Amino acid sequence: MSKLLDNSITIYEAIKNIQNGKYVMPAFQREYVWSSEQIEKLWDSILLDYPISNFLFWHIDDKNVTWDTYFCNFLNRVTFNNSKQSVNINFPINGINFEYTDIAILDGQQRLTSLYLSLIGDTYIKPKFSKKGGVEYVYKLFIELDQNKSENDEEDYNSKKYDIKFTTKGLIINSSTTQFEIRNILNEEFQNDNTREQAIENAIKDVPENSKDYARNILLKLYYKICVEKLIRYTEIQDMSQDDALEMFIRFNNGGKKLRKHEITMSILEVYWPNAREQFSILLSGDYEGFNTDLIIRTALMLYGDVTKTIINKSVADNLKNNWSDFKIAFKNMKIAFEKLNIDLKRFINDYTKLVPILYHIYNNPNTYEEDLDAIRVYLTRTIFFIYFRSGTPGKLQRLKNNINNNGMKISIDMLDAMSELQITESRIEDILNSEKGSRLVDEVLYFIGRDWIDPNKNYEQDHLHPESRFMEPKPFNISIDEWKKWYIIRNRLPNIQLLDEFENKSKNSQRLIDYCNNMNDEQKKEFSEHALIPQNTSLDIDNFGEFYEKRKNILKEKILELLK
Fold first, then answer.
1. Which of 91, 106, 492, 524 is the most buried (most CB within 10 A)?
2. What are the beta bridge partners of residue 164?
3. pTM for the model
């Protein structure tokens, strides 16, 4: 059970702890993203007595981290571009020595890094149009001591109230002598109680008389804020594992540049496998262009770790790196399997979860997976048609993994029949047939039924066979009111819906079905009837809609059962 300890220290103590190596950051916190303007506003907030939020520290020792757990040292140098943004700098990765390192920062690394760079580190700026590796200028943080020179807009509530800014001006001869470099407050003459008063007078000697009190107050306040007041209020968590620390980091990572989980995962992976990102990019090109790294991560977790987790650990990372060739072969073989099944793999770019168990099967059966294509197709259609992954995805993936493991490392139809959520039932088939136009399910069912003729390079739209507009008109003379009301209710359901090429759909518009067919030649009519599953020997007039609907519903039911069995 983790323990929580609340405490506080001064900014000076915090930056000395960073300098001495006492504080580090977990390797998943790798990028410094603050701009120089954000640092200026941080210091403005400090001098305005605003709280700078709590920090979250993680106590580390040889009990809760291993020798091969990696951490990042704080940056001691940063370059800003012409827009004052830091130039995407990653923190250097290192192992740690518990003799002098015992704290990892879970929340607050951007603020602590900014304070450290302001007071101890080196900061630079690239001039506009500077090339990579070109000239950089020293960039220091100053505060203006002459109140008359303040450039701040007091009417703007979002502006700084003190004239604090990074500049190169204070480093140039004949520049302003009333600017004070903030880090100089750490000099011995300001730290010593016996010399501080004189040090302040020396610093403000060029300040006009009407601003001297203002300048003295600023420097005294700066000293107290950095060296006396305990502004770094933190909660220290003890006896917590790295996996729990990572989950906590994600929960607290809501400010600044918010990271998505796969970005954090990539940072962890690159600790154990430096060229992971490059290898992922190669795999996610060509046949897998458009997929993101989540497909790889989730598959790796299912193969080598705990699929209910969302973050990779060292063991999973090592297994992925060491088995990368076999992993890539599984992806290649899945593409082959989908081609043989006539299924467009790109349909799953935003729905990759369904592919993970297939990759798990193929990875474990690289030489025999083609014998199991029917089972793979049945798995895929059942999970889609029964909306298996609607919720609880990690737990459902784990159940599938357990069942595959207990079934000789294979997906089989018998295995699927034994899973209550994937069993074929009359009610589930009826739910599919009653699904309505516009739903994703209608799209999927009609795609799988028509995948042998659907062109993956065309866009298809859901279209009423008997146009919806006809049901807004008066009923046919020989149809009862009750029957017409029933037809109105079912007009949008699957038995009256087809997939039609978007250009054909625009051409068809709201034509009556019988007129649309009569405008075709015999060959066109035959192709349309086959693709749209038009019942044979059935009138296409609207007054025969009831019979048409039931016959087409039965055809669809047979086709759906063929896919599911």
1. 106
2. 143
3. 0.65
Binned at pLDDT 50, 70 and 90, residue 129 comes out as: low
Instruction: Kindly tell me if the per-residue pLDDT of 88 is higher than 90.
Output: no
Q: Where are the beta strands (DSSP E) in 29-175?
A: 31-32, 55-59, 71-72, 77-80, 89-90, 93-94, 103-107, 122-125, 137-138, 140-144, 164-167
The C-alpha atoms of residue 151 and residue 161 are separated, in whole angstroms, by 9
Q: What is the mean pLDDT of residues 113-132?
A: 85
- For 361-395, b/e burial (b = at least 16 CB within 10 A) is bbbbbeeebeebeebbbbbbbbbbbbebeeeebee
Q: Is residue 456 within 8 Å of 344, Cβ to Cβ?
A: yes
User: Rounded mean pLDDT of the chain?
Assistant: 87
Whether the Cβ atoms of residue 296 and residue 269 lie closer than 8 Å to each other: no
Question: Over 143-169, what HEC string results?
Answer: EECCHHHCCCCCCCCCCCCCCEEEECH
**pLDDT at position 3, please?**
76
Exposed, middle or buried: residue 76 (CB in 10 Å: 0-12, 13-18, 19+)? middle
Whether residue 242 contacts residue 24, with contact meaning beta carbons closer than 8 Å, is answered with: no
Whether the pLDDT of residue 174 is over 70: the answer is no
Beta carbons of 246 and 311 less than 8 angstroms apart: yes
Three-class secondary structure of residue 394 per DSSP: helix
What are the residues facing 80 on neighbouring strands?
A: 86, 125
Q: Look up residue 53 and give its DSSP letter.
A: -
Q: What are phi and psi for residue 366, nearest 5 degrees?
A: -65, -25
Confidence of residue 180 (pLDDT cuts 50, 70, 90): very high
Distance, in Å, from the CA atom of 338 to the CA atom of 373, rounded to the nearest integer, reads 9
CA distance 432 to 179: 74
CB atoms within 10 A of CB 141: 22
Residue of 7, 548, 472 whose CA lies nearest to 232: 7
Are 498 and 532 in contact by the 8 Å Cβ rule? The answer is: yes
Q: What contacts 524, CB < 8 A, 6 or more positions away? A: none
The tens digit of pLDDT for each residue in 461-482 reads: 999 999 999 988 898 989 999 9
Confirm if 399 and 377 have CB atoms less than 8 A apart: no
Which residues lie closer than 8 Å to 506 by C-beta, 6 or more apart?
A: none
User: How far is Cα 449 from Cα 497, in angstroms, rounded to an integer?
Assistant: 13
Higher-pLDDT residue of 44 and 126 is 44
- What does the alpha-carbon distance between residue 54 and residue 5 come to, in Å, rounded to a whole number? 13
Closest CA to 378 of 397, 350, 358: 358
